[in-house]
Amino acid sequence: MRRSERDPHLAEMWLPYEEGVELSRAGRSEEALAKLGEALAAGERLLGPDSVHLYDILEGLHVNHLFVQRYEEAAVCGLRALDHAPWVHGASHPRTGDVMDSTAQALRQVGRNREALTLDQHNMVIQSQAFGRRHPATIRAAVNLTASYLALGERGEARDYLGIAERGAAVTDGVTARTLDRMRAHRRAIEDGVPGPDGRRTFPEFAPDQESRYRADAEDGDLAAMVRLGGVLERLGRSDEAERWYRRAASEGVAPALGSLGALLYDAGREEEAERCLGDAAAAGDVRGTFDLGIVLLNANRPAEAEPLLQRAHEAGMGPRAAHLLALALERLGRDEEAGRWYRSAAAAGLPEASGKVGRRLADAGDITGAEPYLRRAAEGGRDVDVLDLALFLGRTGRSDDRDEAERLLRRVAERDPVRPAGVLGALLLEQGRPQEAEPWLVRAGENGDAHAMMNLYGLTTALGRPDEGLRWLRRAAEAGDAQAADLLRRFPAGPRRRRPWRRRSTS
């Protein structure tokens, strides 16, 4: 996740993560693992263990476990990261393939060779589609697939994929010496039956200093390494350097580079350039670029243009988030029935925000029984907005147990968010006749700009015999744009000078 997308309320997760990244770059993997483990524990507590926002942390743990040769732990973290990689990078993006590749190597180290084979097969498809059969990235994928077949004793299949790698390497510059050495060792293993090179050890490409590894390959003309180097630099906040490498690869027609460049430009606020790059990536068949262009157009409130792109991205395997955004585009186009089907599809695939959308639609339609399980599944995703929606729903059912649960949920999110959840909790406590408990929550929300909380404070402090304080809250609510507050102030006998501006606001 980029820095611009990080929730400041999750600092206890991101701060140790960033410390872990710095330690990893310095080659201090044991210390990095401790910090990344701290970040993961905080993230699981705040967001739930299945949150997509844990991806970067899991990937960091995966790489550092590989470097210190803890293959069991590396495999666990790699597989968890792979659950989210299609949503973060795209199902057919080379970065997703990278995680498949490294996880497969960890699995081979612990004897889980059949699982490793499946990942290597997928990675081979991804790299060959992105870069062609004669590219160093595809050749490396073929070599890894050879290793998995050898580990399973399937020498015929191993020979086939080693042949693909050897034919590609014969006509391709930029294949690393390490990959060539592994190819020769695999050939000896196939022809002579000697052990292959993928024994109980890790590989240099998984050292923490990924930047230097990718840079060396990129400077040798490896187009895949240029894309990966750009990704590393972007994560380190060095966007100008990342842009240069993305542009260099894009100038050679590498579709994923166009998509990555477009996403970087959009994140930097250069929206027109971003749209052009993403359009070129989509035209070249890059699935992630197609998906990102759909998001850009949807954000620009151009749902008719976004719809076919999001449809294509979903069909290409971008997962439930593509279905969710497609539903949003259809909803904006007034095609509610189709939108509902896509929301349900995304919810069935486990996307919490889609479950929340289905639940809210059912609740608005009066289907309380149908809405509740969807809203609960959404809240399990850990997002404050979904927990708040569940609390609001439970507060309306009229069941006493539900009101108690709503209060517990609201307290949980109000501790982190001083605005709407705190105001809603205060309002709930007021309804239950608990004004002393309600007031501090309402003050917290009101001080942070919640006009509804200000109006509740106006009523509460006036009822408690503090009319001057109540009038101050009423004025603040009017200044915040609350029409009812403006109308009430207009009616006060305060003279024409004080009445006129509030009359103007209340009728605007």
What does this structure look like?
By secondary structure, the protein is mainly alpha-helical. It is 76% helix and 0% strand. The chain is built from 28 helices and no strands. It has helices at residues 11-25, 29-47, 55-67, 71-88, 94-109, 113-131, 136-151, 155-170, 177-192, 210-219, 223-235, 239-250, 255-267, 271-283, 287-299, 303-315, 320-332, 336-348, 352-364, 368-380, 384-396, 400-414, 420-431, 435-447, 451-463, 467-479, 483-491, 496-507. The longest helix has 19 residues, at 29-47. It starts with 10 loop residues before the first helix and ends with a helix. The relative contact order is 0.05.
What is this entry, summarized?
This protein is mainly α. It has 28 helices and no strands.
Summarize this structure as a short list of keywords or feature phrases.
508 residues; 28 helices; disordered C terminus
